[in-house]
Amino acid sequence: MIRVLLLVALVTLAACWEDGPSASRETSPGGIEYTLIDLPEHEDVTIHVAWPTDWAYRPGTSKAAPVTGAQVILAGGAEGHPAGEVVERFADLDSEGNIHVAVNDHVIGELTFERDRMAETVKIANAHLRAPTLEQAWFERIRHGIAQNMAEAQARHVHAGFDAVRWAVFGTQPLRNAMSLDEPGTFEALTRDDVAAWHAETFTRSPDAIVVAGGIDAGAAGTALDALFEGLPDSGREVSRESMPDFAPRHMLLHLPYAESTNLAFIAPLPPTRLGGELEDLILVHALGGDDQSVLFDAVRTELRATYGFGAGIANYTREHRILFMTGEVEADRLAEVERVVRAAYAMFREYGPQGSLADRKAPLEASFSELADFVVDQARSELQGALEGHPPGRSLELDDELAAVTEESVMARLRKDFPAAGDFIVIAVSPDADGLPGACVIRVPREAADCP
Q1: How high does pLDDT run on average in the chain?
Q2: pTM for the whole thing?
Q3: Residue 20 above 90 pLDDT?
């Protein structure tokens, strides 16, 4: 009997190995819950953590603290580690660490290393999460660099147009400046204490999701996580994300007399991805404006005989507030004509949908999904996003099945039910010609968009 049970166990284990990547829900010895994506062909391991935050939504918080703090935590030293050392030490270990803010709702930490470098890499990362020095000189250097980069971006007319849309949608709500970082004094008033306060409330033992991916078993993964989270507080403040976007259609022109070119953009809301339809969206947006074979590109090139194109994409203000945008650089004296052509092309697209074979449209996604397990970081990122949207463990391993379930009918249902109508867009033009868009609300700085009817 024992021999039979042993044989069954060996056959089952061999089948698991042959199956390749697998997913499971695990709990570390210290009580930390996480998703394990076992990628047995990999020697690398990556840990991804999503800490919840509502810093961007609250009045009274320094909105530049997260973007600055995300860099200062790792660069500015920690208990037992001089400022700047971690960058060189991680390079020596062939390890990587990164912290960034994801659409204002989460702070994401990513730590990637070779299996035999796990203990030292995790120990260094823990020191910087638990007791960062936030060295003043490094804080000032990083703050200055980010402020310069933001000033350069805001000077570009395309960026100014999207800033104007955020003023129109969010007005004076705190969330708007967290996205644009353009209120006077946003960086100048930022102090090291502001970053310390953001750090203290953010990095806890209670993230919204954790994913460990790579060639590692649950025992080793649990040990790594307990070491990574050692000494962090059990929980932070209760998160409350309240915002009131106003996506009412508007027609605006930002007049910049010295702009060297003219840009036109259309923006309207889409449902959040947690409600489904994400793969249909990817197919639709690529067909609409993803390349030089797309509907918008063809409309502008064919009907207007223009030498420029027009594209489309999807972006997130937050996890709940997601937008479809269509945008392109146009000739100033043809601005109104381009608007008419783009709007008409979109209306036709919404009525009749993508043309050609659905199989051909799925092919790039199939290729991308088939390669996902080749890259532990990409696999973990995909799995983490699925976890934040409430999907069961292993969603990132089943994207091929999700894609196979997409049909012509589901694509058209998504387009007609959830995509905006042609008249539902906020339109923003940025032009040196104040009269380029008849009937538009003409503004001279982005903040004036908040008063456009």
Answers
A1: 94
A2: 0.93
A3: no
Domains in the chain, number: 2
Is 7 contained in some domain? no
Domain harbouring 124, CATH code = 3.30.830.10
Q: Say yes or no: 314 and 220 in one domain.
A: no
Q: How far apart are CA 427 and CA 244, in angstroms?
A: 20
Range of the domain at 110: 22-229
Q: Are residues 196 and 84 in the same domain?
A: yes
Same structural domain for residues 26 and 155? yes
pLDDT digits (tens, 9 = 90+) for 123-175: 999 999 999 999 999 999 999 999 999 999 998 989 999 999 999 999 999 99
In a shared domain, residues 129 and 271 = no
The torsion of the CA quartet 309, 310, 312, 318, rounded to 10 degrees, works out to 110
